[in-house]
Amino acid sequence: MTAPEPRPLRPTDEGTAPMADRIAAGDRRALARAITLIESGREDHRAQAVALLDRLAPLGRQALRIGLSGTPGVGKSTFIESFGLMLTGRGLKVAVLAVDPSSTRSGGSILGDKTRMERLSRDPLAFIRPSPSQARLGGVARRTREAVALCEAAGFDVVLIETVGVGQSETLVAGMADLFVLLLAPAGGDELQGVKRGIMEIADLILVNKADGELKPAATRTVADYAGALRLLRRRPQDPEGFPKALPVSALDETGLAAAWDEMQALAGWRRDRGHLAARRAEQAREWFEDEVRQGLLARIDRDPAIRAGMQDLGRAVTRGEMAPAAAAADLLGRIGRD
Length: 339
Description:
By secondary structure, the chain is of the alpha/beta class. The protein has 15 helices and seven strands. The protein has three domains: 59 residues, Single alpha-helices involved in coiled-coils or other helix-helix interfaces; 213 residues, P-loop containing nucleotide triphosphate hydrolases (Rossmann fold); 53 residues, Helix Hairpins (Orthogonal Bundle). It has a seven-stranded parallel sheet, with helices on both faces. α1 crosses α2, α1 crosses α3 and α2 crosses α3. The N terminus is likely disordered.
């Protein structure tokens, strides 16, 4: 397939062209610097980031995007390292975007997933990037979508998006991935009841980790329990018969990983052949656009002194009981619309 011609440079992206070329050539250092650029809060950096993404968009490269969530202590990092090494062993390029909890003081990552995936971090076919969630709901960093796009432009075949843990907004990562995998530990019936139905409804695969040693019988029973629970859910139109599925894996013994990968490929291939994957990507792009508009409006409020002062005045009026919150919000939005 002939690569698309790069679009002509514009005044806004002249400085990003060399970085875009290096990313397109698979330069991991350039990719790391680009992700730092898109995570920056500076306005000039934001303009450069937008120009860079626009410059790389015509490449049209796509990776299999896999979202991964799981309860704390389930072994997500160990699983990702073992799974990633299996994929790189097959010649695939793997990017891991590990969204860490943020320090409330510095805003930086706390867990440092890269240090917990030492073997994978040394693999020349792998790229690991911990990003602070910065208190974003659901443990998904603000610029995760853009980081995924950069990894795809750099030629990675698989992008794994690891979230902080199971919360109330797994739909955020599911909404930017092609497949959503839920990693759970061996558990009994009471623990099964504690898993929310909502997350099971959006999971494409449930992998029960630690299916090894003394925990193997418990893991086998847990897989059967989840398989039974999944059969009670209505099959989604974008899925073939038998999905979603529950499977046992052991990140420690590295067993079950190949079977899990086969199921991921089968599901992604089925969706791709029937147009579901393309439709999902198009919907994700639209949601990305709408989110950028919303965030841009909020940023405009923060930057505009007049709007910020008006918001403070209306806030005081609400505090004193002189205005209803809804009326004050409508007043402020009306002022923004007149600007």
